[in-house]
């Protein structure tokens, strides 16, 4: 799943490649992805892309006051093309293509650039909205603070955690609490903070809150620095190469050498290092035993 660093890098890429160009056409192939009907998607044609913003994991293209907003969900991706002039229409609902945005060339005969939104798998969760204000998108309106904003301080984080009985792993992934962190980077953050994913959020001491805040900001900024400037097609591989625990079950921990372990759930899993995070104790599967605090 694309998370804050990858989504921000995609937004930066679009700022450099799409801003200033007019929208030639928007073609919808995955009708389940389009979540709005007014304004119609056809209203974007002829408008100029004036800015690209990230809201949590949402990408927002401002097209002369109308906003094309997308959330890539778990298996979605944005694919840039320098020339879409030869791209043919495909049968709606067939294949991974959900949306194609053609950008008008600056001059006659110039290449027709643009991008496609694709989604692998059978669970179609990629979402596209055309709105007059990004706040009209329910997921954006409900977002918590952005962890890379100047206002996200250790004190703010402490206020979020204070009194919470939620497990820290789940809390970090809750977009209504903190925007932009998903399954992968929550594993990375908790490893850096040397914290059990099952620890009760409200039980963290002031020192642990400070360490967690540092881990959140450092982990995300480091990942963003690695992703910055890369082409969209290279971001997935860069993300995977930079992960230290997530997706590395059975490998040695880069910090201590212990074996990275996994806890599986119905539709996801988490990875952690027992030595670094749980005092050397392996975590039991939550489906079979009580959580380790």
TrEMBL record:
Residues 244-278 form the FPG-type domain. The keyword RNA-binding does not apply. Keywords: DNA damage, DNA repair, DNA-binding, Glycosidase, Hydrolase, Lyase, Metal-binding, Multifunctional enzyme, Zinc, Zinc-finger. PROSITE patterns: FPG_CAT, ZF_FPG_2. SUPFAM superfamilies: Glucocorticoid receptor-like (DNA-binding domain), N-terminal domain of MutM-like DNA repair proteins, S13-like H2TH domain. Its EC number is 3.2.2.23, 4.2.99.18. Residues 2-93 form the Formamidopyrimidine-DNA glycosylase catalytic domain. One of its GO terms (biological process) is base-excision repair. GO terms for molecular function: 8-oxo-7,8-dihydroguanine DNA N-glycosylase activity; class I DNA-(apurinic or apyrimidinic site) endonuclease activity; damaged DNA binding; zinc ion binding. It catalyses: Hydrolysis of DNA containing ring-opened 7-methylguanine residues, releasing 2,6-diamino-4-hydroxy-5-(N-methyl)formamidopyrimidine. Its cofactor is Zn(2+). CDD domains: BaFpgNei_N_1. Pfam families: Fapy_DNA_glyco, H2TH, zf-FPG_IleRS. The keyword tRNA-binding does not apply. InterPro entries: FPG_cat, FPG_N, H2TH_FPG, Ribosomal_uS13-like_H2TH, Znf_DNA_glyclase/AP_lyase, Znf_FPG/IleRS. Gene3D superfamilies: 1.10.8.50, MutM-like, N-terminal (3.20.190.10). Belongs to the FPG family. This is Formamidopyrimidine-DNA glycosylase. It comes from Streptosporangium saharense.
